[in-house]
Amino acid sequence: MLLILFVGLATGCVYAIVAMGYSLEYRTTGVVNFSEGNYVMIGGFSTYWFHTYTSLPYPLAILAGVIVTTLLGLILWTFIVLPLWRRRSPVYVILLGTIVYGAILGILALLLLGSMPQTLPPWIPGFELDIGESRVQGQYIVIIAATLLMMAAVSAALRYTTLGRAMRACAASRETSELLGISAERMGLVSFAVTAALGGLAGAMITPAQFTSADVGLSYGVFGFVAAVLGGFGTMSGALVGGILLGVVNAFVGRYISSNYQTVIAFAMLLALLAVRPQGITGRSWEDSEA
Amino acid sequence: MSETTLGRFQAFVLAGIVLICLLAPAFGTRLVIYNLTIIALYATVVISLNLLLGIAGQASFAQTTFMAIGGYGLAIMTKQLGLNPWLSIVLSLGISILVAVVIGMPLLRLRGHYLSMGTIALALGTYSFANASSFTNGGWGISGVPTLSVGTVSFRNPLNFYILAWVICFVSLAAFYLLANSHIGRAWRALSTRADIAATLCIDVQRYKLMVLVIAASMASLSGSFYVAYAHFVGPDLYDISIMINLILMLYVGGVRSVVGPIIGAAFVILVPQMAAGLEHYQNLIFYALLLAVILVKPSGLFGKATEARGIDSMIPLWLMARLRTRSR
Amino acid sequence: MKTSVLSLASVSKSYGGVRAVQNVSLSIYSGSVHGLIGPNGAGKSTLIGLITGFIVADSGQITFEEARIDGRPPADIAKLGISRTFQQATPIVGLTVLENIMVGLHAEYRASMASVLFRTASMRHEARAIRERAERLLQDFGLGDDADALATDLPFGKLRFLEIARSVAHRPKTLLLDEPAAGLNAAETERLGGLIRNLSQSGVGILLVDHDVPFVFGLCDTVTVMNFGSVIASGPASTVYQESAVREAYLGAPEAQQEKLECS
Questions:
Q1: Residues of chain C contacting B187 with CB distance shorter than 8 Å
Q2: What is the distance between the alpha carbons of residues C7 and C25, in angstroms, rounded to a whole number?
Q3: Which of B5, B201, B203, B206 is the mutation pick for testing C, counting most C CBs within 10 A?
């Protein structure tokens, strides 16, 4: 039972990271990027590739994986979102663009790396904890710790660094920050790059604990999205709360009911929430900011 | 000229479509008839989306939910309850309308992104429910759905169904055209532009939202029912996320708010992947790459009226432009 | 024509701790033009929102033709004959100029969806009649040549006139104009003034909210001055113009006012 909780917390952390990505990108650019989940998949897969097919030591393989993911995020921003964004295309067009990009990434991964699920070695070899009667893989602890660190770092960066403040200004109003000399385009670039990097890292983290395969991208993307809305779309704390909540619920549903019902229950929760409290658990009632 | 009028070019294209439909039975193979039937059925849903999203501006992505109700409704009512197929179609339609009112209307109160999120959730939730529940026979789907027939005319004959499908499609298109160019359509456009403005012009926003949602849900439900009647099978994969994406793509590629767009878009999305058939994953890859190209180069779709600047320089990021300029000096 | 009165009695509205509108009373009579001036943030737009039903007052009463309208939804209030323009002229996207006016006449359409779908004779007759009415209105506003252009293609000045034309299409009894002169050049402003005068002479009661002081005082019969949510002066235009409190708070010293005239 405790084991399930840990699994839930760990996957919840990955959802939280994806949710944070959605929030970060949305607040800065007003764009919802539906190919988010693929960063997790790509991170895991490319780390696997570097680890297996090159002679890079494990930590560097992880770094390489993150770099690849970041590059893909940059490509998405520069060549797809940005042109549409600058033309002030309607929201659903940009959404469509991100979805199609995500689909392409999924297919490419399938073609390049095959459909076999893959795994990676744990970060700290031999790290296992005995909690109660269960033996918990250390990787789960690593994930939880790393996620908390990541979110703290991002929050701190947003609050205390110049770049962070510039991003928050952009989130509040695109026009005003342009007038203040903040390039909205560069902020968009940064937010997309950071989101991709963190997503890739999350992928490298979760793969040792669970397998990764070419089609997990969609699943993480969807659950991460639900987590973001549950916690309060656009807020950092909301991403964490929503992610953990969804992760734990999913783990228990998967164990005690059936894994098929995970999505059903996730969406039922989402619909219920939107009916009652659209701004999410922690969200303040802020209006749609067309950044 | 407003966007929804039938300009000369579109009228020409429409005539071409009608001509193809008339000639196909004489000159086309069974595959051609099959494809055209499927195009007609999907085009009907895209027309409903054109009304809901294109004209009334409601970013609702839950059309697959209503298709599923129509499709599963027909299958379950005929197979488990032994009802007459036509009656089942009508009852499923009723259920779709009920769902539209009960779930759809509260969702429509949400603004912007929340509406999209909520309806995506509804659509994906419908898929996962269909997949997981024993009521719908889970991932196995329901097969052996009986044929439709009217008197002695059986729609098992593909040609008869082809005609039926296109009749439905053209009727929907006519309804779209008449509504879009009437005061009702203009009220929806006002609502789409800004709801406050519509209200100050004496337009009852909630009533008009309800109207368009019910019409769209009805079209989708009927299309869903007839598709299942055609395939004699229903399964969750008919309503998964890629179908939802494809519908929006069909609308988009054809040109939002255009008259012939939905049919052209449906044809594009259904036929292009088949041209690269046999290459499986590459086929999808090429298709998506092509789509991306359309999105970037012609953001209003093939027949849409471009309202944004689409010069090539708007595609290049500013920092790159600056670099290129200084270099050429 | 009956003298319709739109009255606000001690209306207040607060947002959190901010008192957007405090104890405001004013009246608009048919056939007269009532000006509303005040610095930004004085509560003018909030007042329009309150009258048209988009904002619900915390206290006070708003009556129209002796019936209370506060708390009623915007579409209902519009149907009673209260019309408004918006600060930012917002044409309906995708429709032509003529079609925009036809939307203004929406309340006149009696045809049901069924008659639209079956193209009944009565529906076509009605559509043609309303279309002709819209065309005449466009001519009156000087937009006749632009009838088939896409509304979004119009230059700024014409957009303003389109906005106003759309809001008077269904012959409202009261019209609330939210900064209609903003951004117009001298010639357009003069035309606007003439238009407003014509409208009031035909019996419409007009509330004119604007920053252009000479414009307001030249046109209005009565004026209300607001600052920080409260009324600081109200009455016949000439009287209000003299009041020192008004001059201090809003018009500023004579030199500053001279500057203002030079800038506009």
A1: 103, 106
A2: 7
A3: B201
| Strand pairing category for C5-15 and B149-150 | unpaired
Closest CA to A75 of A218, A193, A195: A193
Residues from chain C contacting residue B259 (CB–CB below 8 Å): none
H runs (alpha helix) in chain C:
44-52, 74-80, 97-104, 113-117, 121-140, 156-168, 186-201, 213-219, 237-242, 244-246, 254-263
Q: Which helix (H) or strand (E) holds C19?
A: strand C18-29
Distance from CA of B21 to the nearest CA of A (A): 31
Residue ranges in C53-155 assigned as alpha helix (H): 74-80, 97-104, 113-117, 121-140
For chain C, state the CA radius of gyration.
Answer: 19
The Cα–Cα gap between A232 and C182 comes to 39
Q: Contact C33/C176 with Cβ under 8 angstroms?
A: no
How far apart are alpha carbons C91 and C162 in whole angstroms? 8
Give CA separation, B172 vs B14, B177, B191, C88, in Å.
Answer: 14, 9, 22, 37
Region class of A236: left (phi > 0), else alpha (psi between -120 and 50), else beta: alpha
**How many angstroms separate the CA atoms of C71 and A147, rounded?**
49
User: Could you tell me the sign of the dihedral formed by the alpha carbons of B117, B122, B128, B131, in that order?
Assistant: negative
Nearest-CA distance A152 → chain B (Å): 27
Token pair for A88: 């002030």
Distance, CA of B106 to CA of A274 (rounded, Å): 9
Share of chain A above pLDDT 90, in %: 13
Kindly provide the ipTM of the predicted complex, given to two decimals.
0.85
Q: Which of B258, B67, B295 is nearest to B176 (CA)?
A: B258
Buried b (16+ CB within 10 A) or exposed e, B206-234: eebbbbbbbbbbbbbbbbbbbbbbbeeeb
Question: What CA–CA distance (Å, rounded) separates A50 from A113?
Answer: 12
Of the candidates C208, C220, C205, the residue with the CA atom closest to the CA atom of residue C174: C205
What band does A66 get if pLDDT is binned at 50, 70 and 90? very high
Which residue, B229, B220, B219, B238, is CA-closest to B75? B229
Structural domains in chain B? 30-327 (1.10.3470)
Query: Do chain A and C touch: 3 or more Cβ pairs under 8 angstroms?
Result: no
Cα A79 to Cα A85, B23, B165, distances in angstroms: 11, 43, 40
Instruction: Write out the H or E segment, with its range, that includes residue C20.
Output: strand C18-29
Q: Is pLDDT at A25 greater than 90 in this prediction?
A: no
Given a cut of 80, is residue B110 above it in pLDDT?
no
Give the span between the Cα atoms of A46 and C201, in whole angstroms. 76
Q: Which CA distances in Å does C57 have to B48, B139, C48?
A: 40, 55, 11
State the pTM of this model: 0.82
Q: What is the pLDDT of residues C233-243, one digit of tens each?
A: 888 888 887 77
Mean pLDDT of C138-152: 88
From residue C142, give the alpha-carbon distance in Å to each of C128, C155, C182.
21, 13, 19
Among candidates C106, C117, C150 on the partner chain, residue whose Cβ is nearest the Cβ of B175: C117
